[in-house]
Structure formats: C-alpha cells, structure tokens
C-alpha cells in the first residue's frame, strides 16, 4: 500500500515538473502523508459515565471500559514473642490507601487510563509499609490526616504525589473552564509527561448542587504517550468542560440491592475481608454488579 502511494506521488511530481504552479500541491500532499503516518489521534470524549454515589457525571474516553482498582494483596504474617504465636493478615499501606481513595477508573483500547478519586485522607505513613486492615481503618480516623475543602495547595500537592507516584513541579495552576458548575479546577505540573493530574471541587451555589459533597476530587490520566496540544485541548474543553452533577448525593443507588445478583440468596455466605474488598472496589461504579456463592464472589459489568 505504501509503495502504491509513493508511486502515485512520484507520478504527480513528474507531471508537476511540466506545470510549476502545481508543485506546492505535491509538497502539501507529501507533508500531510508524512505527518499523518506518525501523529497519534487526540483523546475523544463522546460518552459519559454516571457515578451515582458521589453525584457526578464524567465524560470518558471513546470505547473505554470500566477498570476497578486492583484488589489489595493480603499476606499472612506469623509472629511470636517466644511464648505464644499469632497470625496477622496484612496489606501494603499504600495499596490500602489507594483503595480507600479510589472511586472509579476506565481504560481505552489505546491503553490510556483515567481514574477518579476522592481526596479525603492523606496516607497514614506512620503505620510503616504493612498493616492489618483494622489498624489501617483505625489510623484513618485521625483528623490530622483530613484533606478538607479549604486545605492548602502544598497539602493537595502532597496528596497528588502520593496517589500518582510521581513528583509535582511547583504549585498547581487554575484552569478556567466549566466555571458555573465547578468552584475550582487545579492542574498539577507532573514530572512524568504522560501523567495529567487535576483536582476540583463542585460549586454548591449552582442550582441543584446545594447538597454536593464538600471535598476535593482528583482526576488522573495515565497516558500511553505524552499528550500533544490537541490532546491537552480535548482534556480541558471536552473532559473538564463536560463535568456535570446528577443531583443525587444521598449515595444510595450505587450500593443498592440491584448490584447484588446472587441467584440463591438463601444459601449461607460467610462474610470475610475478601468479599468486602471486592464489593468495595465497585461501590461507585453503577454499571458493575456482583454475585455471591458459598465459595466465591464474581464481579462483572455485563
């Protein structure tokens, strides 16, 4: 195919030699062919996802599929004090924290990943690298870890760095888009050019948003390639500019009984941490559901 195109361009070039005024057309065709061969298409946001439990409607990438966060890996530890032994099921503290802040995620066929998180707590680093879920949940009760609506920019930067796993250069910039529904949008200058990170808070004064959650939300793109100008414009105009609210802030629909499609609910199911973590991973994703059985739990969005 490439050989045929080049041959056709050569024929046009030969003819153009007899008509000088057509030379610029040949040059333009060659440039367009060359650029088109290497340029990646910008992200497109032509569908939306409803996150009922937090009252948000977000544009998502074309043909993107929901991608719940990876379950936390739990390891059993055996301890002894020389007289008695006991076991503890521990997970990585950072993974437990990411799970606690995560709301939803999507990945498109090109490998671009978008995740949404609630910026409510700083990571409890004082726990060390590993902790039981009970110890982790207790640590999060500490108000010193709160990320409140009026927190400082350095605290937001610290949260973004912990969540993204990469450094932020300087303080965030304000993005002036969707200014009626959104009270403020901040963009963080990430050291990894393939990561685009934003924080925003909803404007409660906008009609229908009086009961909006009063916290910061994070939006993080982990792109397959560094974004060009067209991609950055699409993210700002079509994605950030398209954020809306559902006017449902009581948080009931996404955790309602319709998520439970267990066929035989009369059979006893032993509740454990694994089942709880599985359900938690889809709690904000309205198109996902689960099915319990005595021996397993299944998650699906089909």
List unreliable stretches of 5+ residues.
1-40, 248-258
Strand order of the largest sheet: 3-6-7-12-11-10-9
Strand content: 25-35%
Rounded to an integer in angstroms, the radius of gyration calculated over CA atoms is: 25 Å
Number of strands: 15
Number of helices: 7
Structure class: alpha+beta
- Percent helix among the residues? 25-40%
Order of helices and strands: HHEEEEEHEEEHHEEEEHEHEE
What is the end-to-end distance? 39 Å
Compute the average pLDDT. 80
The major beta sheet can be summarized as:
7 strands, antiparallel
- Characterize the overall form: globular
Write the layout of secondary structure elements.
Blueprint: H1 2-16, H2 23-38, E1 47-51, E2 56-60, E3 65-66, E4 74-80, E5 85-92, H3 93-101, E6 102-107, E7 113-119, E8 130-132, H4 133-139, H5 153-164, E9 173-174, E10 182-188, E11 195-202, E12 216-222, H6 229-239, E13 244-245, H7 273-281, E14 289-292, E15 297-300
Antiparallel strand pairs: 1-2, 2-13, 3-6, 4-5, 5-8, 6-7, 7-12, 9-10, 10-11, 11-12, 14-15
